[in-house]
């Protein structure tokens, strides 16, 4: 990112991933779209996504090159929708699906976010693709379990991001007398107190979706992955004391945050850490790319990381995945595309550029940078907890309910009312 020109960031509402640098708008005729020169082309592959800028676009471009080389008779038609990603792309996709003009494959977050498409009959189950390409052997069983809907899988995850990461500034911690990175809740509070006395922001925070992100990581750290995953099933006990304890801990953390959080993006909050104005920040691992690439900070020197205190051994995950659209105009090509996306070649090509790790268990670690090497080890050994903020465990409607309840809590700080609202929403939305 240039320091001389202010670049507009296009942010995914569900994740907040920054498109680094100028937006890379993809021309409508790019990558295999029809023109006067190929008007007689009998087949193509229409893929819909929001990967229009930064590492995402570069990673997709590399996949397109491989695809077109391997499938010269079925060129890739890149149907990306730029700007805002979640809002614009999903609105356009909804219109196309309603008009029965689907692409061959479209992007979505693995997990409950795809539920609306599944229930509407707009995507096909792809159990046969998993069997054909042996994905059950190369994807962790825990992952397959969490993306299975009523006994069937509907998407191929191309990457994995981690949400429960505590980022910190090593120099700030040293100056504040914080001699070790906190691993437990008690250690975390003690470190926040030292940072406060040192005159820096203890825990930087941004706008509401980042506050929801913080909430989910505190809950997972408090009640553990098994009880967390159980909350999203019918009969999940949102009234239990563990949830109340987590909400009270969350309330406590808010007292250590910056007063202007509501007006800051996640990048702004991360930059406070990078600039030495804050000690800690809790954010997904897309922050690694922001620190390393945009802000030119060196891993382990300019910034450091660990699991959110209390969640060591737990991977709060989210994933970009692709589907087989019902009524895909080039279904055979779409099946091949999904098989390709799940391959080691595709995942080790895309993810080092994107700044994420592959869903597969057999990645070539030599291709990944310092943070991602750590994440690869964690992914293989940790227990999994699906992300709320980023589409894994709850439907869009359930997420909206929680957003509303959280907004009211951020004003009132009333834990009892907040928990009651969460209980009511679960009774209404859990299937």
Explain what the structure shows.
The protein has 431 residues and is an alpha/beta fold. It is 45% helix and 12% strand. The chain is built from 17 helices and 14 strands. The chain has a 5-stranded mixed β-sheet with strand order 2-1-3-13-6, covered by helices on one side. Strands 9-10-8-11 form a 4-stranded mixed β-sheet. The protein has a 3-stranded mixed β-sheet with strand order 7-12-14, sandwiched between helices. Strand 1 (45-48), helix 1 and strand 2 (76-78) form a beta-alpha-beta unit. The termini are far apart.
Quick one: biggest sheet? 5 strands, mixed
Q: Ends: how far apart?
A: 44 Å
The total count of helices amounts to 17
DSSP strand count: 14
Beta-strand percentage?
5-15%
Weakly predicted, low-confidence segments? 1-41
Q: Supply the helix-strand structural class.
A: alpha/beta
Shape: globular
* Rg estimate, integer Å: 21 Å
* Share of helix, binned: 40-55%
Order of strands across the biggest sheet?
2-1-3-13-6
Mean pLDDT, to the nearest integer, reads 89
Describe the structure concisely for a colleague:
This protein has 431 residues and is an alpha/beta fold. The chain is built from 17 helices and 14 strands. Strand 1, helix 1 and strand 2 form a beta-alpha-beta unit.
């Amino acid at each position: 990112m240039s320091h001389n020109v202010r670049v507009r960031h296009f942010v995914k509402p569900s994740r907040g991933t920054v498109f680094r640098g100028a937006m890379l708008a993809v021309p409508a005729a790019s990558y295999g779209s029809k023109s006067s020169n190929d008007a007689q082309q009998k087949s193509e592959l229409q893929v819909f996504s929001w990967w229009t800028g930064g590492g995402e676009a570069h990673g997709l471009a590399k996949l397109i090159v491989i695809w077109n080389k391997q499938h010269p008779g079925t060129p890739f038609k890149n149907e990306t929708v730029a700007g805002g990603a979640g809002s614009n792309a999903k609105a356009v996709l909804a219109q196309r699906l309603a008009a029965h003009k689907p692409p061959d494959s479209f992007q979505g977050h693995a997990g409950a976010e795809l539920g609306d498409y599944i229930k509407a009959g707009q995507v096909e189950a792809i159990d046969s693709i998993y069997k054909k390409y042996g994905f059950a052997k190369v994807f962790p069983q825990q992952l397959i379990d969490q993306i299975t809907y009523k006994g069937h899988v509907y998407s191929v995850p191309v990457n994995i991001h981690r949400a429960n990461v505590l980022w910190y500034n090593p120099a700030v911690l040293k100056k504040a007398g914080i001699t070790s990175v906190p691993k437990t809740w008690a250690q975390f509070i003690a470190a926040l107190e030292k940072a406060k006395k040192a005159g820096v922001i203890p825990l930087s925070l941004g706008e509401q979706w980042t506050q929801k992100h913080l909430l989910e990581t505190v809950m997972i750290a408090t009640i553990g992955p098994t009880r967390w995953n159980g909350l999203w099933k019918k009969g999940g006990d949102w009234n239990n004391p563990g949830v109340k304890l987590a909400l009270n801990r969350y309330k406590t953390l808010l007292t250590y945050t910056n007063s202007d959080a509501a007006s800051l993006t996640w990048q702004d909050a991360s930059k406070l850490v990078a600039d030495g104005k804050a000690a800690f920040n809790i954010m997904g691992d897309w922050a690694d790319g922001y620190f390393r690439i945009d802000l030119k900070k060196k891993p382990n020197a300019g910034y450091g990381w660990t699991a959110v205190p209390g969640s060591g051994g737990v991977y709060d995950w989210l994933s970009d995945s692709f589907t087989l659209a019902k009524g895909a105009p080039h279904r055979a090509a779409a099946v091949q595309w999904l098989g390709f996306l799940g391959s080691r070649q595709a995942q080790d090509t895309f993810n080092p550029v994107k700044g994420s790790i592959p869903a597969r268990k057999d990645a070539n670690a030599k291709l990944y940078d310092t943070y991602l090497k750590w994440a690869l080890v964690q992914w293989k050994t940790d227990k999994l907890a699906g992300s709320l903020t980023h589409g894994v465990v709850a439907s869009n409607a359930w997420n909206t309910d929680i957003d509303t309840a959280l907004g009211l809590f951020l004003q009132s700080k009333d834990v009892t009312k907040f928990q009651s609202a969460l209980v009511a929403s679960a009774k209404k939305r859990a299937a």
